[in-house]
Design brief:
heterodimer; A: mainly alpha; MetI-like fold; about 75% helix; B: about 240 residues; alpha/beta; D-Maltodextrin-Binding Protein, domain 2; five-stranded mixed beta sheet; 10 strands
Chain lengths: ~230, ~240
């Protein structure tokens, strides 16, 4: 297709798989954290919020370093890879998913938390007076009201995972079909002077990023109008 | 008091040679430790600073073709310096072989690597090598596996570092159980287990240096190359396990 070498398609498919799986996991884990952050009265919750937001500030190399060493086979966190029977987080698709979930977490949690907070206590109180169980109120009241937050979070989480580079470079090991995602493939092409392949992929990423940002803006506009 | 200060000031200046210059050297990752030691010795002797940048030979070559501010390339192969001369970027008669590299199979576990039978036994999950398109030691590793008729079997277990430095780090951090690296990376390290790959299994890794045209008139650059060629440079290079 398009005269591109087949390994480019492998990288594209892999990147989409990684971003999709990461987004799904983030939608579950991120929603739980966002809900707790929005509703809890615990005095230390902003500490938790800050930990979740750490990847916004930390260079990916810090996370890459911890994944390799602290969570490596000889590190104290080696049990994490053992959860799915692997020896190490490095060089595996699962390892990349784990890293991506941590790395993209703030992009999912922040918009959802904001959406939960913006809706206030009132809708849930009303639901409670109508004898809805907390679980039912969550699904039928909170989630629909927070829809823009979920959409923003999902788009950002997905896009940010597609754009991830530093961690994959550090723990990936460049395995086609497993860890050689698009950003690393581009790097590889550039490093070995394969400009044609690099420019095709790079242009594709620019188009992708443009579509993401444009659709985000349009989504927000639509919800802003609907809210009025 | 004032005079003491003036004298101290003058003494400070007198201590550094009159024409201390500097040169930017792009160094293939396998030569990292040797290059650092050479730069220190070179500074002590000439007063010039050699500012070192490390990467895979392929990476450094690409950067040089894109006008990176390097004045010398210490490559891990002979092809890339040759290509730089053909590209019109390198000084033709400045090319020389500064070292011949040795490939080694290494593991951090003391009893894992016993020889080629370790590769045949296949009792590991990940084999680390350097990216063969960018790093000559990676290409030599692939060549070795093919010569042993093991490439097809072991190919799914190969993980690639960007440069031989990352390939080493993957093993050193125990994320890969073993891998092919440069013997020079094990200088002063007796740990783990190793197998020096016999030379008949891969093309000799002839590491060439080349002076880049834009630095042809920089004495710090030309002196660095002479130092590398000279007895002191060679002694250091030999210490790191290279041949000539």
């Amino acid at each position: 297709m398009l005269g591109l070498p087949p390994d480019i398609w492998t990288s594209i498919r892999l990147t989409i798989e990684l971003a999709t799986l990461t987004t799904i996991i983030l939608l579950i884990v991120g929603t739980l954290i966002a809900w707790w952050l929005a509703r809890s009265k615990a005095w230390w919750k902003e500490g938790v919020a800050s930990v979740v937001a750490l990847p916004l500030v930390l260079p990916p190399t810090v996370l890459g370093f911890y994944l390799l060493v602290t969570l490596g086979p000889n590190g104290p966190g080696s049990w994490i890879a053992g959860l799915w029977g692997a020896r190490t987080l490095a060089f595996t698709f699962e390892g990349l998913v784990f890293g991506s979930v941590v790395y993209s977490m703030p992009f999912m949690v922040q918009p959802i938390r904001n959406a939960f907070q913006a809706m206030g206590d009132r809708p849930l109180e009303v639901a409670a007076t109508l004898r809805a169980s907390p679980m039912k109120a969550f699904w039928t009241v909170a989630v629909p009201l927070a829809r823009p937050g979920f959409l923003t979070g999902a788009v950002l989480g997905f896009a940010h995972t597609v754009g991830e580079f530093g961690i994959v470079l550090m723990i990936g090991g460049n395995i086609p079909g497993q860890t050689k995602v698009l950003s690393v493939a581009i790097y590889d092409y550039v490093e070995t002077s394969q400009w044609r392949e690099a420019s095709i992929l790079a242009a594709g990423m620019v188009v992708f990023a443009f579509i993401v940002i444009l659709s985000m803006t349009l989504i927000e506009k639509r919800f802003a109008r609907a809210g009025r | 008091m004032k005079t003491i200060k003036t004298w101290a000031f003058l003494a400070l200046f007198a201590a550094t040679p009159a024409l201390a210059g500097e040169t930017n050297v792009a160094v293939a990752a396998n030569f990292t430790d040797a290059a650092k030691e050479i730069a220190t010795a070179f500074k002590a002797k000439s007063g010039h600073d050699a500012i070192l940048s490390f990467g895979s030979s392929g990476q450094l070559y690409t950067q040089i073709t894109q006008d990176a501010p390097f004045q010398i390339l210490l490559s891990a192969d002979a092809e890339r310096p040759q290509k730089l001369v053909e590209d019109g970027l390198g000084v033709a008669d400045s090319r020389f072989t500064y070292a011949i590299g040795k490939l080694v199979l290494w593991s951090k576990s003391a009893d894992l690597v016993k020889g080629e039978e370790t590769l045949k036994a296949n009792g590991f999950t990940k084999l680390s090598i350097a990216n063969p398109t960018a790093a000559p030691y990676g290409a030599a590793a692939i060549e070795t596996l093919k010569a042993l008729n093991l490439y097809d079997t072991l190919q799914p277990k190969i993980v690639q570092g960007n440069s031989i430095a990352q390939a080493f780090q993957f093993i050193d951090s125990a994320n890969a159980e073993l891998g092919f690296i440069a013997l020079s990376q094990l200088a002063g390290n007796n740990g783990g287990s190793r197998w020096l790959v016999p030379q008949n299994l891969y093309t000799p890794i002839r590491q060439d240096a080349v002076l880049l045209k834009k630095a042809a008139s920089n004495p710090a650059a030309t002196e660095f190359l002479s130092f590398l060629k000279g007895a002191e440079g060679r002694a250091i290079i030999e210490k790191f396990g290279y041949a000539f």
